[in-house]
Write a structure and sequence with these properties.
- The structure holds 2 protein chains of 2 kinds.
- Chain A is mainly beta.
- In chain A, a hairpin with a 5-residue loop joins strand 4 and strand 5.
- In chain A, strands 2, 4, 5, 6, 9, 10 and 11 form a 7-stranded mixed β-sheet that branches.
- Chain B is mainly beta.
- Chain B is built from no helices and 11 strands.
- In chain B, strands 2, 4, 5, 9, 10 and 11 form a 6-stranded mixed β-sheet that branches.
- Chain B starts with a strand and ends with a strand.
- The chains are: A mainly beta, B mainly beta.
Chain lengths: 119, 110
């Protein structure tokens, strides 16, 4: 069964609204989670690293104020797309990483993704 | 940063044929995963293979870490194998984040 749950799977909303996407690790506590973005027919691009109990680390070119990340517990990270506009429409997918001391022996587990459409 | 290159970018096969997908990476890695992305966007984890060889049914993978490449073999391809195959890597000095290649789009014709 799935070890990472992502919700919602699809969102359609009006321009200017904020959208929150949740990523939960089901079978382990995740001190680190990752958020990716994928445009149609393109690869996955890492947006940010979500760190439990501290600020997220954003990749170059990713707007921190546009994509707010909160990792308040060991099993939940949220990505909020603030004041969304049509250019924010994309496929967003998260992954959860097992604890650091196990990372060398564990694959990353991915959620099923969220398809965001801004009208 | 590390570069990940996949080849070929596109591949069309007749059902029953075999194929090999390649992933080259520019530096040492401690994690390499192969994924199949289905039409709904779900990433199906095929192999976790930072080194060595693994097999799962009609699929197998080999990573030669010292030469910085990995191969994914698909034998007796089926139409359900169609989709995009991604290779992704991480390395010891990073936080475990995965860097993805550009993918190979496979189409298997009946």
């Amino acid at each position: 069964g799935a070890v990472v749950s992502q919700h919602p799977s699809r969102v359609i909303c009006k321009s200017g609204t904020s959208v929150k996407i949740e990523c939960r690790s089901l079978d382990f506590q995740a001190t680190t989670m990752f958020w990716y973005r994928q445009f149609p027919k393109k690869s996955l691009m890492l947006m940010a690293t979500s760190n439990e109990g501290s600020k997220a680390t954003y990749e170059q070119g990713v707007e921190k104020d546009k994509f707010l990340i909160n990792h308040a517990s060991l099993t939940l990270s949220t990505l909020t797309v603030t004041s969304a506009h049509p250019e924010d429409s994309s496929f967003y997918i998260c992954s959860a990483s097992p604890p650091r001391h196990l990372r060398g022996n564990q694959p990353q587990h991915f959620g099923d993704g969220t398809r965001l459409s801004i009208l | 940063g590390i570069q990940v290159e996949q080849s070929p970018p596109d591949l069309i096969l007749q059902e029953g044929a075999n194929s090999t997908l390649r992933c080259n990476f520019s530096d040492s890695v401690n994690n390499l995963q192969w994924f199949h992305q289905n039409p709904w966007g779900q990433l199906i984890n095929l192999f976790y293979i930072p080194s060595g060889t693994k097999q799962n049914g009609r699929l197998s993978a080999t990573t030669v870490a010292t030469e910085r490449y990995s191969l994914l073999y698909i034998s007796s391809s089926q139409t359900t194998d169609s989709g995009v195959y991604f290779c992704a890597v991480s390395w010891s000095s990073n936080t475990g984040k995965l860097i993805f290649g550009q993918g190979t789009t496979l189409q298997v014709k009946p």
